[in-house]
Amino acid sequence: MTDIMKQLSLKGKNALITGGNRGIGRSIGLAMAQAGANIAIMDLNSDDAGKTIDDIKALGVKSVFYAGDVTMAENCNQVVSELIKDFGKIDILVNNAGICKNVKAEEMTWKDWYDVINVNLNGVFLMSQAAGREMIRNKSGSIINISSMSANIVNYPQPQCSYNASKAGVSHLTRSLAYEWVKYNIRVNAIAPGYIGTDLTRAQLSTEWGKIWQDATPMKRVGKPEELGGIAVYLASDASSFTTGSIMTVDGGYTTI
User: Fold this and answer.
1) Given 114, 156, 163, 179, which residue is catalytic?
2) What is the pLDDT of residues 144-201, one digit of tens each?
3) Between the CA of residue 190 and those of 7, 8, 174, 220, 234, what are the distances in Å?
4) What is the mean pLDDT of the chain?
5) Of all residues in the chain, what percent carry a pLDDT higher than 70?
6) pTM of the predicted protein model
7) Rounded distance, CA 224 to CA 59, Å?
8) Fewest CB within a 10 Å sphere: which of 10, 93, 119, 137?
9) Is 90 exceeded by the pLDDT of residue 75?
10) Beta bridge partners of 152
11) What is the DSSP letter of 209?
């Protein structure tokens, strides 16, 4: 009989999470730490890093913080190299760093457009490439990209064409890398959240936008960051050994109607 709890264990594995100081990244880090993984966090700055690292260490695993910019290839490669020195190898990468700008398409500047695409899509590729090279050497690894339901729908009422386009790119990049790297025993999947109560959305929840979002969600609420932890552990673990190129939607039913 298969021991499902053993399959879900991440004991002895090392995970790198971008944008892991707060929100979804922090919750995924804590969930993976509870499952036994050592956690490395990469972020632009150290805000909130100390508390997150302390909370992860309290779960009995190792945890470190690396300052780095996912849009700069040299930073991505350097952070992965530092992780290898500190932990020995990389088993899991969670591409969580992301931004959103709510600007009308006709008013959007080139910088507005490029900034979102650069972080949300280019950053996912650069980090996947840096970690993927090490995983190819090890013939093993799991990459989890944080996409969005916005990859498949147009959000209402806010204008966010750059975000939607970037997340559509993340979902298809996920499938493409899954195909290219399956021969190296590297699995690449994505989580596509709906509206989650993070810093990107929390300020809007009490506004007309927030009311529309919640009314349009069958569960009539936004999700909690910790509600993504379980699926992230599943995708990182041996329990999902036959899962690659999949986009797992977690949206309270938003895209079912």
Assistant:
1) 163
2) 999 999 999 999 999 999 999 999 999 999 999 999 999 999 999 999 999 999 877 8
3) 20, 18, 7, 24, 12
4) 96
5) 100
6) 0.97
7) 21
8) 137
9) yes
10) none
11) H
Interhelix angle 123-138/73-87, rounded to 10 degrees, is 40
Distance from C-alpha of 69 to C-alpha of 46, rounded to nearest angstrom = 12
Residue with tokens 């709510």: 102
- Apex 26 CA angle, 23 and 31, nearest 5: 125
In sequence order, which ranges of 139-247 are alpha helices (DSSP H)? 161-181, 208-216, 229-236
Residues comprising the chain, all counted: 257
Q: How far apart are CA 23 and CA 220, in angstroms?
A: 21
Is beta strand 141-146 parallel, antiparallel or unpaired with respect to 63-67?
Answer: unpaired
Residue 47 and residue 24 in contact, taking contact as beta carbons nearer than 8 Å: no
CB atoms under 10 Å from CB of 208, counted, come to 9
93 token code pair: 């990468």
Going by C-beta distance under 8 Å and a sequence separation of 6 or more, which residues neighbour residue 170? 95, 120, 121, 124, 145, 146, 147, 148, 151, 190
Nearby residues of 166 by Cβ (< 8 Å), 6 or more positions away: 98, 116, 117, 119, 120, 121
Please confirm whether the linkage preceding 157 is cis (ω < 30° from 0): yes
Whether residue 163 lies in the annotated active site: yes
Residues paired with residue 186 on neighbouring β-strands, in sequence order: 141
Q: What are phi and psi of 187, to 5 degrees?
A: -100, 135
Cβ(19)–Cβ(95) under 8 Å? Answer: no
Least confident piece of the model among 77-91, 163-177, 204-218, 227-241: 204-218
pLDDT band for position 46 (50/70/90)? confident
Tokens encoding 185: 């025993």
Q: Whole-angstrom Cα distance, residue 249 to residue 227?
A: 12
- 183 token code pair: 């021969």
